[in-house]
């Protein structure tokens, strides 16, 4: 059941809730997530952490790989595109989570722990293995508490999805009905009037245009015009203001080298003996010591010893591999032992509260050190970007405060030593703000925009403080300015009169009782075996024809203005046997249709009033 629902929820608008059911992937996949206690804002009040970013990044990556192949990487996309995909993934997940919380569907910590206890990955010989659980979790860079919270959230989302999905099941009878509907065909006789051709064939004089203008003045109103004064803060402009300290590159490169020391990663494998499997801790120690001596004397390799004797079932088949650590993923006793080990060396026996271990250091990953010349441009760019953002944010907050205090636009400009720009009187089709493209013309012409009131608009890397200074309401334009439009309206009116005069004769023409007008804009044709998705006729005409009884005259206008009269006959409905051959090709279409309906429901029900406050979000 849930697999079907997740297929419905895999589109661009609704998240796929798979984390809980893909626990082994989270642990055993190629990507390991490090927990960073950073905040990226909120969605509907739900905090967004680095872990959320990591999980969403992985989810997006896996989804794209399923489409483009395993060689695909998020790095193949522009950073803006990948960031937007990750952002949408986070927003969808957090939106669902917030509604699950509102509906009281958040499961308890106790329920989540019960789920964790039953996960196969954490099972030892005698059931759930606490040590195995903690070591596996920490090896992947999480704390047990973080992981339990993740399970709580995921189980809550599953409850919500289950509740929503009760009406979204594919039904065989519905699929057959859909296939029958789309495979049914009709013969269609029709008349078409090429409206554009008919209009252009009509004669119209200047006097007729003048008369039409006099009779219909409100068809020739000018567009409203507005004049705006504004200030724009742009990221690029602030970059030019940044001053780089004289010794900055040397100091930044020194910091870079110091930071590399903490980026060293060690991969270890272990052989584990569980104390509870023996009558005493002494006997457990004797067992592992015997193994240790065999390894030291080279009677057995470490890998052979793990395969034969390790009691950690989760890592036994992979040579005891526990993954990578940069110094804080493994138990403290492990991390201390690693510090004195060489590559491929074996540690002394390490005793934990419930278990005994022998470690092998299998890999040391040292960060690649780049030269100062290689790093200079990057370090300067980082400084300029950070300082420019800080300067712009400082000015924005200052201007925002001044707006709240009732200051004028000129006062805002003086406070940051900038000049006020003006648009001049423009209509909605020509208005624009220099250096700021994140406001739509419809927003500037919205009725809520009042004269002499400063509006604040936020872009991706810019802000605009905008004030309407003048508005000219629409007036009737002089005939000399709209003469061509008035004459064209006369032509259109004459064409409409010809079409209206033909309405009563249309059915007779199709039935062969009347003669088609001798005008090149009029044509008559017949098509046999037309299906609903045929491209022989505009979709509006085909849909209205199939929705009407056989033999009924249908009159409709196509999207381009062409006029049609149509009659259908000889409907052919496929038999069950004929239909069975077509079902498979309609399965995908049916699922997509159901998915769109369900996704539309989610959008309407959940995203109304959505409050997204994300910051500093970038793809990793």
CATH class of the largest domain equals Mainly Alpha
Q: What's the helical proportion of residues?
A: 40-55%
CATH architecture of the largest domain: Orthogonal Bundle
Terminal CA distance: 34 Å
Side by side, the strands of the main sheet go: 14-5-16-15
CATH topology of the largest domain: Triger factor/SurA peptide-binding fold
**Total beta-strand segments:** 17
Q: Main sheet?
A: 4 strands, antiparallel
Question: What do these coordinates show?
Answer:
The chain has four domains: 2-169 and 596-614, Triger factor/SurA peptide-binding fold; 185-216 and 481-572, no CATH class; 225-245 and 374-472; 265-365, Chitinase A, domain 3 (Roll), CATH 3.10.50.40. The strands form five sheets. A four-stranded antiparallel beta sheet has the order 14-5-16-15, with helices on both faces. It has a four-stranded antiparallel beta sheet with strand order 11-6-13-12. The model is unreliable at 1-38 (pLDDT under 50). The protein is built from 23 helices and 17 strands. With 620 residues, it is α+β, with helices and mostly antiparallel strands. It starts with a helix and ends in a 6-residue tail after the last strand. The chain has helices at residues 2-8, 23-28, 50-68, 79-102, 109-117, 130-139, 144-164, 172-183, 195-200, 206-215, 235-239, 248-260, 281-296, 302-309, 313-316, 332-339, 372-404, 409-415, 441-444, 479-510, 539-546, 576-580, 583-606, and strands spanning 39-43, 46-49, 123-124, 127-128, 185-193, 225-234, 265-274, 321-325, 350-351, 355-365, 421-422, 454-458, 462-472, 522-531, 554-557, 563-572, 612-614. Helix 4 crosses helix 7, helix 5 (109-117) crosses helix 7 (144-164) and helix 8 (172-183) crosses helix 23 (583-606).
């Amino acid at each position: 059941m849930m697999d079907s629902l997740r297929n419905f929820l895999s589109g661009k608008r609704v998240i796929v809730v798979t984390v809980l059911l893909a626990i082994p992937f989270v642990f055993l996949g190629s990507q390991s997530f490090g927990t960073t206690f950073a905040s990226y804002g909120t969605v509907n009040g739900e905090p967004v952490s680095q872990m959320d970013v990591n999980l969403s990044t992985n989810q997006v990556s896996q989804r794209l790989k399923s489409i483009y192949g395993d060689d695909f990487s998020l790095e193949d996309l522009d950073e803006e595109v990948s960031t937007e995909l990750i952002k949408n993934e986070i927003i969808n997940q957090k939106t669902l989570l917030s509604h699950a919380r509102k509906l009281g569907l958040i499961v308890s910590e106790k329920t989540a722990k019960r789920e964790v206890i039953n996960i196969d990955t954490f099972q030892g010989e005698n059931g759930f293995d606490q040590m195995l659980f903690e070591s596996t979790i920490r090896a992947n860079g999480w704390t047990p508490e973080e992981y339990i919270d993740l399970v709580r959230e995921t189980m809550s989302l599953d409850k919500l999805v289950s509740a929503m999905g009760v009406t979204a099941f594919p039904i065989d009878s519905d699929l057959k009905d859909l296939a029958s509907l789309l495979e049914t065909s009709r013969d269609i006789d029709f008349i078409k009037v090429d409206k554009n051709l008919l209009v252009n064939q009509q004669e119209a004089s200047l006097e007729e245009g003048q008369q039409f203008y006099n009779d219909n003045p409100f068809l020739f109103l000018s567009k409203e015009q507005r004049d705006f004064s504004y200030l724009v803060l742009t990221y690029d402009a602030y970059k030019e203001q940044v001053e780089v300290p004289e010794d900055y590159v040397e100091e930044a490169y020194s910091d870079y080298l110091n930071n590399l020391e903490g980026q060293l990663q060690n991969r270890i494998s272990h052989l584990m003996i569980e104390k509870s499997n023996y009558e005493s801790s002494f006997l457990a120690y004797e067992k592992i010591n015997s193994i240790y001596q065999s390894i030291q004397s080279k009677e057995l390799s470490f890998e052979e010893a793990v395969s034969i004797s390790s009691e950690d079932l989760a890592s036994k088949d992979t040579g005891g591999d526990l993954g990578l650590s940069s110094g804080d993923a493994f138990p403290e006793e492990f991390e201390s032992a690693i510090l004195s080990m060489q590559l491929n060396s074996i540690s002394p026996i390490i005793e934990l509260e419930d278990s005994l271990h022998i470690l092998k250091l299998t890999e040391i990953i040292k960060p690649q050190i780049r030269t100062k010349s290689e790093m200079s441009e990057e370090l300067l760019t980082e400084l300029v970007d950070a300082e420019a953002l800080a300067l712009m944010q400082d000015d924005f907050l200052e201007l925002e405060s001044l707006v709240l205090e009732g200051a004028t636009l000129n006062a805002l400009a003086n406070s940051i030593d900038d000049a006020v720009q003006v648009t001049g009187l423009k209509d909605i089709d020509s208005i624009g703000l220099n250096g700021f493209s994140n406001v739509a013309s419809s927003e500037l012409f919205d009725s809520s925009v009042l004269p002499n009131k400063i509006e604040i608009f936020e872009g991706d890397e810019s802000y605009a403080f905008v004030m309407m200074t003048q508005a000219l309401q629409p007036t009737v334009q002089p005939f000399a300015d709209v003469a061509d439009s008035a004459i064209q309206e006369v032509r259109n009116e004459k064409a409409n009169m010809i079409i209206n005069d033909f309405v009563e004769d249309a059915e007779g023409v199709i039935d062969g009782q009347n003669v088609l007008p001798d005008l090149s804009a009029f044509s008559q044709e017949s098509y046999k075996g037309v299906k609903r998705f045929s491209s022989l006729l505009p979709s509006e005409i085909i849909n209205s024809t199939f929705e009407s009884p056989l033999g009924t005259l249908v009159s409709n206008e196509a999207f381009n203005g062409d006029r049609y009269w149509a009659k259908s006959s000889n409907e052919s409905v496929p038999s069950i046997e004929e239909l069975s051959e077509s079902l498979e090709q309609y399965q995908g279409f049916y699922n997509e249709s159901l998915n769109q309906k369900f996704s539309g429901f989610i959008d309407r029900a959940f995203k109304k009033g959505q409050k997204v406050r994300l910051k500093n979000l970038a793809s990793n």
